[in-house]
Specification:
With 241 residues, this protein is α+β, with helices and mostly antiparallel strands. The strands form two sheets. Strands 1, 2, 3, 4, 5, 6, 7 and 8 form an eight-stranded antiparallel β-sheet that branches. Strands 9-10-11 form a three-stranded antiparallel β-sheet, sandwiched between helices.
Amino acid sequence: MSLALDAKQFLRSTRRGVLSTHSAKMAGYPFGSVAPFVVDHSGSPIILISTIAEHTKNIIQDPKVSLMVLNDEADMQANARLTLIGEAVMADKDDALLRARYLRYQPQAETYFEMHDFNFYRIQIKQARYIAGFGKMGWLEGDALNTPFDAAPLPLADKEAGIIEHMNADHAHSMLAYSQHFHGKTGDSAQMLGIDTDGFDVALMNGEEQQVLRFNFEQPIQDAGEARKALVAMSKVTTPK
């Protein structure tokens, strides 16, 4: 697997990091803050932040930021990590598709949308430094992490909600089978959270405990038809013969 593909899959599998901005209060010093995020269909991290937050004030003065992406492993230095360098640009808070996608992954943010001072910012990646493990690391151009599409707008964005609704209503058993076959995880129930060109995410429930699992497609998909083919192929692999 190429370093770029590995980095893209790592980014798609994570939802938390440390955002570093240029301090407006202390000129010349970096300012770090915890930053939950969701990756959109283009491969860009989306953060939801308040105008009164220190990091937002910093971004307004200077949009150049870095985002260090972390996974859930206890030993951070022994595991993969990714630092994204780019610019934070305000995105449309009223974009219904983006809002729905964000809340599927970060449901605790629901109340933030009722507050007028919270806005979406999209981090447009310019460069990335990925450390996959000992001896496997390097710098990547931002384009290596972005998702190219043959058509605009991004075709999966419009169809994502319908695909999720169909999978959760009619194929919840398939997601339990995917979880066991590809991750060795079992649960009481499973729900698809999101699907993109590179793969999809499933929330696996065991009682009240939830674990989000990432499934990568063997080949990128671009539309609902290709999504269906990829999901059917996975079901065939997981169906006992």
